[in-house]
Design a protein that fits this description.
six-stranded parallel β-sheet, alpha/beta, Dihydrodipicolinate Reductase, domain 2, 2 domains, binds nicotinamide-adenine-dinucleotide, single chain, 14 helices, Rossmann fold
Length: 407
């Protein structure tokens, strides 16, 4: 979790009854100084979310943007002007963005299949880089990114921000720091949700461009499971397919081929057993992690009722029977932060990026962790294709990953 020097009172600072307070008299409401200038490559859904959270946090300003589609840049600039007075530089190429000496850090928010190429275009700048998840669509590119990040003299942070969701911050604290459950034995994660949303050129409807559903979306959950298991995966078995979504969807003569449901089982070297369930043909969003140990279990839950436009609810339940105190807590961040995207997790991920830029220790995702998440996802996709359990040592050897993976 990031460091907070003072309590921010945004609800007051933005209130109509407080606008008359002149700048010179703003103490509680004084915005932090934006010390860093950021440039965003790819101003779609998540690029705009990073622009929003950067503005909300206020420790960095969005200096410039580039997108291949001028429509995406127009929309992002219009949206930005609603909450930020700064003028945006609009670059006409990645080279122009890289050549701007005023830029302190670069965010890569383009579709999955472009990450490796875009990273290769910006790496010569030597600047701190934020790279959205999944870092690549193939294990070969992900391996090359880990090797690049280890040679790089600056930060490369991967966009696996679910670890900053309130329910997981608390779950990790209970299970790993307080050891409330004793030794962890099983981890069970599920996501029930609506189909993938529309995207520019619909890249997320094709395995070729997304890396496959388990890589594209579920790398978030495999990262969480890896972190909770605190061990290396040993064996992965999965079943899944495309049952309902986009079965009649075509673009440029190509049929959508992405999975919309799956069951994945992961055995870890330390004996922890985990499973992950995905179902993407639901009306609402329901995410859950259940961790069981020698002394009891915890349930970290997030539920969104889109149909009734209810606020998302997150909670942590601890059930310890006779071994300790059981409880259920509703959790949440300040609603201004929660509504900025991904229930506040992107805000805290962004804060961690700025902290790291300023030399502080953070728990944001490294390229190694990004690769481990993709290893589990890719092994699960291989298991779905072959119907066989995947031995991870053999899988890593086959993909020449043994020497690259150290964590
Ligand atoms: N961390 C998260 O929770 C999260 C959430 C959503 C998306 N993402 C990731 O963010 C990335 C973008 O997803 P999105 O939902 O914003 O997609 P999107 O389709 O809404 O936006 C992508 C934008 O990138 C632009 N683009 C494509 N190729 C480009 C290039 N070479 N150079 C510059 N711009 C380019 C497109 O024109 C588009 O405007 C993906 O990797 C996705 O997996 C992460």
């Amino acid at each position: 979790m990031t460091e907070h020097k003072k309590v921010r009172l945004r609800a007051f600072e933005n209130a109509s009854s407080q606008r008359h307070v002149p700048e010179a008299d703003r103490y509680l409401y004084k915005a932090p100084i934006a010390k860093h200038r950021l440039a965003i490559i790819g101003t779609g859904t998540i690029g705009q979310e990073h622009m929003r959270v950067a503005s909300l946090l206020g420790r960095a300003q969005i200096h410039g943007i580039f997108d291949l589609e001028s429509h995406s840049m127009d929309m992002a600039a219009t949206e930005f002007s609603r909450y930020n007075k700064n003028t945006l530089v609009r670059y006409d190429s990645i080279e122009a963005l890289c050549a701007d000496e005023q830029v302190d850090a670069i965010f890569i928010c383009t579709p999955n299949f472009t990450h490796f190429d875009v990273l290769n275009q910006v790496i010569h700048t030597g600047k701190p880089i934020f790279l959205e998840k999944p870092m690549a669509t193939s294990l070969a590119d992900a391996k090359a990114i880990v090797e690049m990040s280890e040679r790089y003299s600056n930060i490369i942070q991967i966009g696996l921000q679910y670890r900053y969701k309130a329910q997981y911050v608390e779950a990790f604290h209970e299970a790993l720091a307080r050891k409330t459950l004793g030794e962890i034995k099983t981890i069970s994660v599920s996501e029930y949700r609506p189909p993938f949303l529309d995207k520019v050129k619909q890249w997320n409807k094709f395995n070729e461009f997304s890396g496959g559903t388990l890589v594209e979306k579920c790398c978030h959950y495999f990262d969480l499971i890896n972190l909770m298991a605190q061990s290396r995966p040993q064996r992965v078995f999965a079943s899944g397919g495309q049952a309902v979504n986009f079965t009649d969807f075509e673009r440029d003569g190509k049929k959508s081929d992405i999975d919309d449901h799956s069951f994945v089982i992961i055995d870890y070297e330390n004996g922890v057993r985990a499973n992950f369930t995905l179902n993407m043909f639901c009306a609402d969003f329901d995410e859950e992690m259940i961790v069981s140990g020698e002394h009891g279990r915890l349930i970290a839950a997030e539920k969104s009722d889109f149909q009734h436009q209810q606020p998302t609810k997150t909670s942590l339940t601890i059930e310890l029977g006779e071994t300790g105190a059981s409880r259920k807590q509703d959790l949440g961040y300040s609603s201004i932060i929660e509504s900025s995207g991904h229930h506040g997790s992107t805000f805290y991920e962004h804060a961690a990026f700025i902290d790291e830029l300023e030399g502080k220790d953070v728990h944001s995702a490294t390229a190694q962790q990004g690769l481990w998440a993709i290893v589990v996802a890719s092994a699960a996709q291989a298991s779905i294709r072959t119907g066989e359990a995947i031995n991870i040592k053999a899988f890593l050897t086959e993909h020449d990953l043994i020497a690259t993976l150290s964590e």
